[in-house]
Design a protein that fits this description.
By secondary structure, the chain is an all-alpha fold. It has helices at residues 11-19, 28-42, 57-62, 66-77, 92-113, 119-132, 146-152, and strands at 5-6, 55-56. Helix 2 (28-42) packs across helix 5 and helix 4 crosses helix 5.
């Protein structure tokens, strides 16, 4: 039996009161997945020492989240060793996910929870701002649409 658990940062409890209990996310697990994606988008991980009640790993497995979590560990370590049989009972790979989620939760607290508007509207604004902050078209390729750049692999 697998006793693996994901440790949400203590901050997850406060944020889930706003975004899960009274907001757009169905569960704390879904909030953590979104927060980790935000942390990845921001390009940083934040360690933490105090955690909320741990979430059973099988909840993430049932939602097919393990591929995303494993991918974070592979990207961080630069290899597949983190997923080898030697690491099977290890939870080292979860630390990357938890730290990205912590970064994302901090960002959500600052930009969604502490904002005066509706949380869903604030999340939509967050998407829009992240989309706007993507790299601009290189000067020599101006006039091409994003679709054109995608076809070119740029």
């Amino acid at each position: 039996m697998n006793h693996r658990r994901v440790r949400p940062p203590k901050l997850a409890k406060e944020i889930s009161e706003h975004l899960v209990d009274n907001g757009p996310f169905e569960s704390k697990q879904k909030l953590l997945m979104f927060a980790a994606a935000v942390g990845v988008q921001l390009g940083r991980r934040t360690s933490f020492s105090s955690s909320d009640v741990a979430i059973r790993w099988d909840i993430f497995e049932r939602n097919n989240d393990e591929a995303f979590i494993y991918s974070l560990a592979i990207a961080e370590t630069g290899g597949l060793d983190i997923l080898s049989d030697d690491h099977e009972d290890s939870e080292d790979f979860l630390v990357y996910f938890e730290e990205y989620a912590h970064t994302g939760l901090q960002y959500l607290e600052e930009n969604v929870v502490n904002s005066p508007g509706d949380p869903l509207d604030e999340l939509i604004g967050l998407f829009m701002s992240m989309e706007d902050s993507e790299e601009e078209t290189p000067e020599e390729l101006e006039g091409l649409t994003q679709k054109d750049l995608d076809v070119l692999g740029l």
